[in-house]
């Protein structure tokens, strides 16, 4: 039941049809007994700054989730960021404070790693390959290094962007060997797609080296479709696959906490 007391939350994306956050977060709100509702907003990049500015004066608006392609741009829009969002260079959760200030955080990486660990995957000493150096990719890169992968190779259309991300991760986690390079698919223990390739039916695969093998894990950050062409091909060739939705499920509580939907007594939970 939505009333005049209900707190409003949103998710902003372009396109918007694939997002799963509204159903996940609204179930979470109901389970918590929180009087809030999260709705989708389809906003194109040129209109993002104006849209966000309009939310500052909306007194019953509490927070926003940002996804493709807005995570990187959201960093500059926020008045303040917390955690490692500045190092990552992106924001995916925004809280609106009572004075209209927007406070950002980046939670994709923690959610992705928690999703793998919940399925019994130990990342310690893995040789990992990350496809994509955008907002989600950067968050996952930092989280993989924090989780203890031995080697991380970042593959991106812009090699300079991949090298910049590799440098930032290496500076923070010097024990991990981090480079920009090629997929070299057969040698990897873990391959992660953090690009948007796979959202649309006519998308190309996010890598050219398709030599997947048994014993490796191929994971997605994309949630819809659940079985992307990359995962389908990897599965057919014997690899273990990991869907994108666990990344969201394992950060829902973190998002709710950042946006102020959890009671103060639960903030450390």
Automatic annotation (TrEMBL):
GO terms for molecular function: NADP binding; shikimate 3-dehydrogenase (NADP+) activity. It comes from the Bacteria. Keywords: Amino-acid biosynthesis, Aromatic amino acid biosynthesis, NADP, Oxidoreductase. Residues 11-94 form the Shikimate dehydrogenase substrate binding N-terminal domain. Pathway: Metabolic intermediate biosynthesis; chorismate biosynthesis; chorismate from D-erythrose 4-phosphate and phosphoenolpyruvate: step 4/7. GO terms for biological process: aromatic amino acid family biosynthetic process; chorismate biosynthetic process; shikimate metabolic process. This is shikimate dehydrogenase (NADP(+)). It comes from Paracoccus gahaiensis.
């Amino acid at each position: 039941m939505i009333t005049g007391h209900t707190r409003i939350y949103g998710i902003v994306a372009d396109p918007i049809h694939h997002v799963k956050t509204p159903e996940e977060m609204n179930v979470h709100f109901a389970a918590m007994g929180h009087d809030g509702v999260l709705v989708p907003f389809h906003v194109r990049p040129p209109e993002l700054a104006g849209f966000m500015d309009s939310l500052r004066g909306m007194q019953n608006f509490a927070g926003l989730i940002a996804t493709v392609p807005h995570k990187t741009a959201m960093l500059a829009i926020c008045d303040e960021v917390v955690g490692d969002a500045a190092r990552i260079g992106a924001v995916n959760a925004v809280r609106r404070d009572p004075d209209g200030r927007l406070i950002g955080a980046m939670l994709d990486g923690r959610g992705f790693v928690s999703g793998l660990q919940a399925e019994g995957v130990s990342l310690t000493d893995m040789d990992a390959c990350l496809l994509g150096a955008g907002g989600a990719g950067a968050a996952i890169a930092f989280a993989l290094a924090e989780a203890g992968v031995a080697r991380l190779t970042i593959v991106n259309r812009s090699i300079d962007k991949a090298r910049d991300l590799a440098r930032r991760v290496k500076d923070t986690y010097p024990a991990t060997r981090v480079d920009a390079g090629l997929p070299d698919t057969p040698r990897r223990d873990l391959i992660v797609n953090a690009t948007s390739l796979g959202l649309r039916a006519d998308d190309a695969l996010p890598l050219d080296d398709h030599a997947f093998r048994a014993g490796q894990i191929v994971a997605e950050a994309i949630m819809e479709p659940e079985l992307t062409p990359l995962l389908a091909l990897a599965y057919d060739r014997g690899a273990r696959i990991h869907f994108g939705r666990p990344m969201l499920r394992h950060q829902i509580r973190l998002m709710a906490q950042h946006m102020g939907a959890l009671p103060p007594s639960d903030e450390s939970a």
